Amino acid sequence: MLTAQAVLHNVQFVTNYNEQLPPIFCEPNQLKKVFINLIKNAIEVMPEGGNITITIKKLADRMSISIEDEGCGIPKEIINKLGEPFYTTKDSGTGLGLMVSFRIIAEHKGTIIVESEEGKGTIFRITLPINDNNVAIPK
């Protein structure tokens, strides 16, 4: 879905995951929105190209999904504002994409942690619970 945009920006995808990952209990279309938003943002912060590394691994009773870019990084004072309604660093952004993404992950009983170093890039680390029959599916 984002392949054409990645090609235009000279961005390559690197994926790291184990074939034997357990299922997560989720609403797939909602999580798809999150991943599209985060990957699209990662492409946009690398106008000269680079790699987006997507890593998926099991951590005890949770899954970890990391999306890492090689962009310019995010200043520490801005990281805490990410996910606030209408907050954007883009000229043409609405400031709603990350807000919606944070909400969707929270509704799935997950977390998003942002790690960034200016000049080196940013990692969005998402954790989600592994399939649990006692958890209701988010709508």
UniProtKB/TrEMBL annotation:
Q: What is its EC number?
A: 2.7.13.3
SUPFAM superfamilies assigned to the protein according to its UniProt record, in alphabetical order: ATPase domain of HSP90 chaperone/DNA topoisomerase II/histidine kinase (SSF55874)
Annotated Pfam families: HATPase_c (PF02518)
Q: What is this protein called?
A: histidine kinase
Q: Which organism is it from?
A: Neobacillus vireti LMG 21834
Looking up SMART domains in the UniProt record yields:
HATPase_c (SM00387)
| Phylogenetic classification of the source organism | Bacteria, Bacillati, Bacillota, Bacilli, Bacillales
Q: Which PROSITE patterns does this chain map to?
A: HIS_KIN (PS50109)
Record keywords: ATP-binding, Kinase, Nucleotide-binding, Transferase, Two-component regulatory system
Where does the record place the Histidine kinase domain? 1-132
Electron transport: present as a keyword of the record?
Answer: no
The cross-references to InterPro entries, in alphabetical order and at most eight, read: HATPase_C_sf, HATPase_dom, His_kinase_dom, Sig_transdc_His_kin-like_C
Q: Which GO terms describe its biological process?
A: phosphorelay signal transduction system
PANTHER family from the xrefs? SENSOR HISTIDINE KINASE, SPORULATION KINASE A
- Asked if the keyword ATP-binding belongs to this entry, the reply reads yes
The UniProt GO MF terms for this protein read: ATP binding; protein histidine kinase activity
Catalytic activities: ATP + protein L-histidine = ADP + protein N-phospho-L-histidine
